[in-house]
Amino acid sequence: MHFSQSLLACLFASNTVAAGVTGTAFGFAAGTTGGGDVEPVYPTDIDELTSYLTDDEPRVIILSKEYNYISSEGETTEDGCRPDSNTCPDDGGQDAINGANWCTNSDYPTVSVTYDKAAITPINLGSNKSIVGEGDKGVLRGKGLRIANGAQNIIIQNIHITELNPQYIWGGDAITLVGADLVWIDHVRISLVGRQHIVAGYDASPRVTISNTEIDGNTSWSASCDNHHYWALLLIGEGDKITFQNNYVHHTSGRSPKVGGTGDGTLLHAVNNLFEENTGHAFAIAEDENGRVLAEGNVFINVVTPIEEGDAFMFSAPDASANAACQDPLGYVCEVNLLTASGTLSGSATDFLSGFSGEGLTAVAASQVAASVKSNAGVGKL
């Protein structure tokens, strides 16, 4: 049975499983409860917020204002580098901080970089947390979140993460997953980051759902020199399972997403998303790794290259006849994608579709997606 987007929204809104949280986690992250029904806390400043996020107590943390970490840890000036991609240094290109020795291990020319230190080190979350914005007020400025080393049962909902050294590659990641479990990222907006909006890898994060989230690539500093952010979504965990549904990914130029991973790699269900205004590629699936993608019921508008270099690890749901392959493992016939003023989307691999058995989703027709996603994805839209 296929539900309409509006019906799904009503069902989610009417079923609150945790204090402060709207709706119920679904897809691979079904069962995530975050802080449960503990009494919500309202942090007064960044120090109290950091304490709540990192302690060992179940927490429902309500963000009712902006928490600005910029300058809280000072800034530094050091040697970085100018990558080949920065062909427009005087007109909005991205130079690079020496993250992961990226500059040291290259022949890129050295340049001086001055950046805010807070964005380089994300906050490491403890388990059993709900982080929820109130209305459209919940803003995390200049600091990202990291869920790692066995942290689990976390809900991030209705917050805006922004301004992580956007002028520099390696300037900061907004949300990082490394060896996490039961994570639901919902109605989040991410903008103006230096590196990845969301990155998952390398250790397995086997139950993750990203939904109703806005990946906003508008920027004045672009690795592709066109005000579109290149470093959007990097999903390279070993054995990750990710539901990616009802999201709005726009004004990017690459890695939207890049999918791979060693071992079992990342299994990604990209369903009913809107990809719009991408001057490069949306999907990049590493041929020497094991990223596997089912893409169905998505809309691509002005996306130059919906998938980069081949189709070996994607099922692109091309037509009703081919899409019948979804029936046994998923319980329904997959929905065809819709492409407007875009390149082609290809991929005929089906041997991994059994991995989606039990995910518990249905898709709607792509014709219903664009208006619904623009109305519902991001902050202040619960």
Automatic annotation (TrEMBL):
SMART domains in alphabetical order: Amb_all
Domain Pectate lyase: 96-306
Catalytic activity from the UniProt record: Eliminative cleavage of (1->4)-alpha-D-galacturonan methyl ester to give oligosaccharides with 4-deoxy-6-O-methyl-alpha-D-galact-4-enuronosyl groups at their non-reducing ends
Secretion signal, residue range per the UniProt entry: 1-18
InterPro entries xref list: Pec_lyase (IPR002022), Pectin_lyas_fold (IPR012334), Pectin_lyase_fold/virulence (IPR011050), PEL (IPR045032)
Keywords recorded for this protein, A-Z: Carbohydrate metabolism, Disulfide bond, Glycoprotein, Lyase, Polysaccharide degradation, Secreted, Signal
EC number: 4.2.2.10
GO cellular component: extracellular region
Gene3D superfamilies referenced in this protein's UniProt entry, alphabetically: Single-stranded right-handed beta-helix, Pectin lyase-like (2.160.20.10)
Function: Pectinolytic enzymes consist of four classes of enzymes: pectin lyase, polygalacturonase, pectin methylesterase and rhamnogalacturonase. Among pectinolytic enzymes, pectin lyase is the most important in depolymerization of pectin, since it cleaves internal glycosidic bonds of highly methylated pectins.
Family, as annotated: Belongs to the polysaccharide lyase 1 family.
Name used for this protein in its record: pectin lyase
UniProt source species: Lentithecium fluviatile CBS 122367
Species classification: Eukaryota, Fungi, Dikarya, Ascomycota, Pezizomycotina
